[in-house]
Hints:
- This protein is an alpha+beta fold.
- The protein is 29% helix and 36% strand.
- β5 and β6 (140-147) form a beta hairpin.
Amino acid sequence: MKYCVMMFLFLSGALALQAQTERRIYTSAERENNLSEEERAQSRAEQKRQQALSDSIAFAKAMESIEQLSFVLEADWVTFKRGERVFVSSNTNFISISDDRAVVQVSPVLSGGGPNGVGGITLEGRGSDFVLSTDKNGNVTLRFNVNGSGLSATVTLSMPEGSCRATAKVSPNFHSNTVTLSGLLLPLAESRIFEGQSLF
Length: 200
């Protein structure tokens, strides 16, 4: 009898233990479906707040890197003279500034090759006449010149307030082959660029 009681208690405890540890885990879609409209609105508002905070921090870092002349615009899109827009690799398409050293690299060919070895051209020059302006809405514009044996151009970089996404228009001084690079503006130390062989 004592043995039966002990066995009953043991089995009851094991069943109770199993019931305590078993629970349903929901996917994010299931969790979203189970929320009330008010909870969904709160969730979306919280996500927007988190994104705004993240964007604000990225914008502050981008501004600091511009003011220190130590930044890279890693382009994921390149637009050519006649409006042709091409999706490109951000680590081989960029404009980099390190004090007065400027590099403009456009490599729209993903398979490599080209004069720079990574599918395009790499032009290095000296950056000068940097002028930073901010409009009444907080949008930033940086204009500067790049001069080198392979490149003489004016660069106009635009970045909207609260974002680190930027667009830079490179306007050569001796011909009209303008190119526009669009992507993320990052501190030079955080960039992941791969610089090809400069033409000059």
